[in-house]
Amino acid sequence: MKISRPKIYEQIANRLIEQIENGVLQEGERLPSIQKLAKEYGVSNASVREALNALRIIGLVEMKHGYGTFVKQKTPQLFDFISQALTPKRVKEILELREVVELSTVQFAAKHRTEDMLAEMQLALNDMEQAMRTHQSGEAADLRFHLAIAKASDNELLYELLHNISDLIQQTMKGTRHIYLYNREKTMERLLEEHIAILKAIEQQNAELAKQRMTSHLAEVRQTLVEHYIVD
């Protein structure tokens, strides 16, 4: 069965994910070569490389230089719980804090934003889009966007509050984005569009609309984590 557009690499990745989940491809097993997969699916070598890189990001495969690509594990690595700083309870608390703080910061940002701050937000979105196009998770740019909103709120305490836990926030963002890479019903494009919509509301200085869009975005993040049993 040939692969067809759009999002060729995502379709290839989904096919491989299904084979790993169903045990067709076992842990430790070497995948067919890029050239063989490209021929099988009727796509370019570049599309296969993109698909394998997406699976590498979420920990399903590992690439050994000179040896090929191997199945690393059956389930994706969405969060690293080796660090006791990021337990499921802590993730839940971070989400609750973000919901309380960021609904305020986005409203204040809509009222007080400057052209320089809008440019900083846009730059973060540009980097987020670039990360998406090169099949990286892009959580660093995501964090910069939300911190830029807090900075634009013109409230030092709100900004410092988010900045002080920025490392933990970035880890939850990374987990969320890995879920998007893994979940066949969600797309990174949709995640980017949510951020663009928030920026547009801030640009329009529409505080209520900015709050609505941030509410929707954070609710989607929470639901994504709930669906994957990360948060009770």
TrEMBL record:
Gene3D superfamilies: GntR ligand-binding domain-like, Winged helix-like DNA-binding domain superfamily/Winged helix DNA-binding domain. Pfam families: FCD, GntR. The keyword Ribosomal protein does not apply. The keyword Ribonucleoprotein does not apply. One of its GO terms (molecular function) is DNA binding. Residues 6-74 form the HTH gntR-type domain. Keywords: DNA-binding, Transcription, Transcription regulation. It comes from the Bacteria. Signal peptide: none annotated. InterPro entries: GntR_C (IPR011711), TF_FadR/GntR_C (IPR008920), Tscrpt_reg_HTH_GntR (IPR000524), WH-like_DNA-bd_sf (IPR036388), WH_DNA-bd_sf (IPR036390). This is FadR family transcriptional regulator. It comes from Staphylococcus rostri. The lineage of its organism: Bacteria, Bacillati, Bacillota, Bacilli, Bacillales.
